[in-house]
Amino acid sequence: MSHVERNCEEKSNGKDKETRDTMLAIIKLLQVMPSPSTESFNHTARLFLTKWSENLNVIKFIAHFKTECIYKNYGWYEGFVDGPFY
């Protein structure tokens, strides 16, 4: 399990199991996303953030994920080649 997965699991504690499992599955998908560029990751991350930002039960988690995994530590996924999320 990666440090991002562990961090996300810790931050998502207290959420209902189905929501938590779904979000963590998408984060795992993002982590292993193969890409010769950041385009696929950026598109998938945008969709993830758009979908879950509307769910008031996970808004704090999404804010944390966005800050830590998208903007601050943007090179954490395996397909990372060049550049941050835009």
Gist?
This protein has four helices and no strands. The chain has helices at 3-11, 17-31, 39-53, 59-72. The longest helix has 15 residues, at 17-31.
Q: Can you put this structure into words, describing what you see?
A:
- It is globular, with a radius of gyration of 12 Å.
- 62% of the residues lie in helices and 0% in strands.
- With 86 residues, it is mostly helical.
- The chain has helices at residues 3-11, 17-31, 39-53, 59-72.
- Helix 1 (3-11) packs antiparallel against helix 2 and helix 3 runs antiparallel to helix 4 (59-72).
- The chain contains four helices and no strands.
- The protein has one domain (3-72).
Q: Would you report the number of β strands? A: 0
Terminal Cα separation, in Å?
Answer: 27 Å
Identify the quaternary structure here: single chain
Could you give the order of the helices and strands? HHHH
Question: Low-confidence parts lasting 5 or more residues at pLDDT below 50?
Answer: none
Number of domains: 1
Q: How many alpha or pi helices?
A: 4
Note the beta-strand portion.
under 5%
- Backbone structural class: mainly alpha
Outline type: globular
Biggest sheet architecture? none
Using the CA coordinates, give the radius of gyration.
12 Å
Residues in helix, %: 55-70%
pLDDT averaged residue by residue: 78
Keywords:
86 residues, 4 helices, mainly alpha
Walk me through the topology.
Elements (H helix, E strand, L loop, with lengths): L2 H9 L5 H15 L7 H15 L5 H14 L14
